[in-house]
Amino acid sequence: MKTISCLFFIVLIFALWPCRTVSAGGDLIDKACEKTPYKELCKSSLRAEDESPPRADLHNLARIAVNVAWTNATDTQEYMNTLLNAATEPFMQQSLQDCDATYDDAIGNLEGSGFGV
Known about the structure:
Layout (H helix, E strand, L loop, with lengths): L1 H15 L4 E2 L2 H9 L5 H11 L6 E2 H29 L3 H22 L6
Antiparallel strand pairs: 1-2
Helix pairs in contact: 1-4, 2-3, 3-4, 4-5
């Protein structure tokens, strides 16, 4: 959940920050991630997915952040469904169903973000 929160915060920063292009993608990633609570996670996530390091802009980094968040959320939801299928206690089943509904909402928000997941 912290990963989704962190990446969602990054998307918010990029959406509010005017779109600029810089010549060094790493510099922009460092600068953007310095404003987040999970700096190293932000940097490693964006660098792992950045397709065009020589020319990165905020719009591209926001798209990458949304895609990373969507991938993590869908992977987590699949794992939750595996746990749900194995759960035998009613409390555990209800807890996992509640969590699944929250992830459904989050995934829907990411898909509706306009960044093309």
